[in-house]
Amino acid sequence: MSVAMTSLNSGALAALANGTHGDPFGALGRRDDGDGPYVRAVLPGAASVEVVARDDHRPLGVLGEIEQTGVFEGPVSGVDPYLLRIEWPGGVQETEDPYSFGLLLGDLDLHLLGESRHFELASALGANPMTIDGVEGVRFAVWAPNARRVAVIGDFNSWDSRRHGMRRRLPSGVWEIFIPRLKPGERYKFALIGPDGSRLPDKADPIARSAEKAPGTASIVASAEPHAWTDHEWMARRGERQAPEAPLSFYEVHLGSWMKPHGREVDWSFAIEKLIPYVADLGFTHIELLPVAEHPFGGSWGYQPLGLFAPTGRYGAPEDFARFVDAAHAAGIGVVVDWVPAHFPTDSHGLYRFDGTALYEHADPREGFHIDWNTAIYNFGRREVQNFLIASGLFWLERFHVDGLRVDAVASMLYRDYSRKAGEWIPNQYGGRENLEAVAFLQHMNAVVRERVPTAMTIAEESTAWPGVTRPTEENGLGFHYKWNMGWMHDTLHYMQQNPIYRQYDHDGITFGLVYAFSEKFVLPLSHDEVVHGKGSLLGKMPGDAWQKFANLRALYGLMWTHPGKKLLFMGCEIAQGREWNHDDQLDWPALDNPNHAGVQRLIRDLNRVYAAEGALHAKDAEPAGFRWMIGDDRANSVFAFLRYGEAGAPPVLVVANMTPVPRHGYRIGVPTAGVWREIINTDAEIYGGSNVGNGGAVPTVEAASHGEQQALDLTLPPLGVVALRPA
């Protein structure tokens, strides 16, 4: 049926027909221009359209197509709620008219969006299943202030951008529409027309809570049903479990390459079944996941994310990730996710020039483009971008009960000249290199996290000497709870790679870290970055023959677990994997058939057990009172000895490291307590693959003034070994 008359002028008709009309809510739905009510709809490809009453389906009118444009119009009777009965070539669809619904976002949402303080952003923007006027469907909303037009496209409308043009809400720059009868699981994107009138690449939803499995790039309408959490006991005690006085030991994981089972996918169910028990058995307190936010390129390991609110579809649905976190908490394991607010990739379906302008990023490449990673840099000075990023971090902490965010590449955020030559960067307003906007963002983010999720933690990967990374924001610090100690990692690995005969010349590689060990609350990281890009494995870095390589690696771990600072170890390092990590392959699990590899794994288990059991090894990790050098100057023998102290009344722990392959007998060290000292760790023990040189499990003190004490221990120091003792 065709329509001979319409109140639309030719320009408006053409705009509706071509999907370029910037105000479809001003032209579609039920209308009355004075000659009685009528309904207008854009339904290209429809054979016929009827209007019926919603309550009893009585006929209200018939719409005819205007000049074969796909625009239908016709008079209707009454003002009752109505349905469109649409005959398509493949069948008949009956649905409410999206253009019959009023304004969607409420005043509070719009106020908070305008103030850029809507920290529950995913409840306002994105795709939210809900019921409006008794009708179930999905409300879509997206921030695109410079777009001329925005539409939702998906399987439900044959990806036709003419069908569901959105309403612009001024002055917020948000576009919205409610599409009736849609349910979770629908794929969708946004089709935008930029400010110059050009059609942009179809965009995934920046606030999508679920995403299509790669290589697909569509967003998915996520369920609105919250997970039924069972981790109340964990959450009640989380603050004390993650405090600076607690033992924290992180097992860093790239889930896709941890273990690849035969005949099934690597997903969150597999991780619940295999990964969580494995980590619990080894005694780690936390699993730290390389980024699991949606990312288009698997080879980025997640460090180039585009869906900051969506767990990647590679491992299952968002509710599956929630089950994983819940299961970890049930096993006494915390979950930390790597979170990347520093930069994002420029894939056409993502955030880059989202509405045809530099919306999330800086327009000037000297501020807005990372040369190292070929990625865009967020405009931290824009309040809406700060809100987007902070809301993302909170989303993982609040919705998924994640216990912490490890913030990637903080150094690249803090310095405007990061990895740039002269002339390739713009100084700040004072002429300096500090990125003041990024500093303000990080302080704001950490302050909001402490206010809203006080028992969660934030951890900075920050590789410079920027002061006050873990100082509270009220004291002008950045406000992180912990910082990766990259200096310790670099110096210690450099020392360990030296042939033992030359270590006496690099003695400060071990001692220097104690000069600044208490300037921040540190995590000691041996992370994925140390076993990729041609760096080889940790075992491969160790000098000497096969026996010495394993002994050196065990000594490294002994030093690490007794040194002030929390611990982080990348997967595979606990089994002394011989090859460099490959994200396309699984770890070398068959290596555990070799007793040397199995011995290193057993050592890690025991180190975690002793670390957690001995308050002296963790309670004062960030306090100078928790550490005392006993021997720090024995360069000739490459021997180090120090005491660790816990709270008052807790027994101290003496740690002695012999970093040469020569056993040393009768090595005297003063100790503060007389009596028998029990050996609680010996990295050279036979059960770890060592030569079993040691002190028979215990050694009594002798009355001899030494190192400022009135009694001493005469110890046997194993070759390339670390021993730890405590009063029996």
What does this structure look like?
This protein is α+β, with helices and mostly antiparallel strands. The strands form eight sheets. Strands 15-16-19-23-24-25-26-27 form an eight-stranded parallel barrel, surrounded by four helices. Strands 1-2-5-4-3-6-7 form a seven-stranded antiparallel β-sheet. Strands 28-29-30-36-32-33 form a six-stranded antiparallel β-sheet. A hairpin with a 2-residue loop joins strand 6 and strand 7 (91-96). Helix 5 packs parallel to helix 6 (318-330). The longest helix has 19 residues, at 595-613. The chain is elongated and about 110 Å long.
Characteristics:
alpha+beta, 728 residues, 36 strands, 22% helix
Number of helices: 15
- Summarize the biggest pleated sheet: 8 strands, parallel, barrel
Our Rg estimate from Cα atoms comes to 31 Å
Shape: elongated
What distance lies between the first and last C-alpha atoms, to the nearest angstrom? 96 Å
What portion of residues is helical?
Answer: 10-25%
Uncertain stretches: none
Q: Count all strands and give the number.
A: 36
Query: Strand order across the biggest sheet?
Result: 15-16-19-23-24-25-26-27
Task: Report the structural category.
Answer: alpha+beta
What is the average per-residue confidence, as pLDDT, rounded to a whole number? 97
The fraction of residues assigned to DSSP E strands is 25-35%
Question: Brief description of this entry?
Answer:
With 728 residues, this protein is of the alpha+beta class. It is built from 15 helices and 36 strands.
Give the arrangement of secondary structure elements:
Blueprint: H1 10-18, E1 29-32, E2 37-42, E3 48-53, E4 59-65, E5 71-75, E6 82-88, E7 91-96, H2 107-115, E8 126-132, E9 135-143, E10 149-154, E11 167-169, E12 174-180, E13 187-193, E14 219-220, H3 232-241, E15 249-253, H4 255-258, H5 268-282, E16 286-289, E17 293-294, E18 307-311, H6 318-330, E19 334-339, E20 343-344, H7 365-368, E21 369-370, E22 375-377, H8 383-399, E23 404-407, H9 410-414, H10 436-452, E24 457-460, E25 482-484, H11 486-496, H12 508-511, E26 522-526, H13 538-541, H14 546-562, E27 566-570, H15 595-613, E28 627-634, E29 639-644, E30 653-658, E31 664-671, E32 676-682, E33 698-700, E34 702-706, E35 709-717, E36 721-727
Parallel strand pairs: 15-16, 15-27, 16-19, 19-23, 23-24, 24-25, 25-26, 26-27
Antiparallel strand pairs: 1-2, 2-5, 3-4, 3-6, 4-5, 6-7, 8-9, 9-12, 10-13, 11-12, 13-14, 17-18, 20-22, 21-22, 28-29, 29-30, 30-36, 31-35, 32-33, 32-36, 34-35
Helix pairs in contact: 5-6, 8-10, 14-15
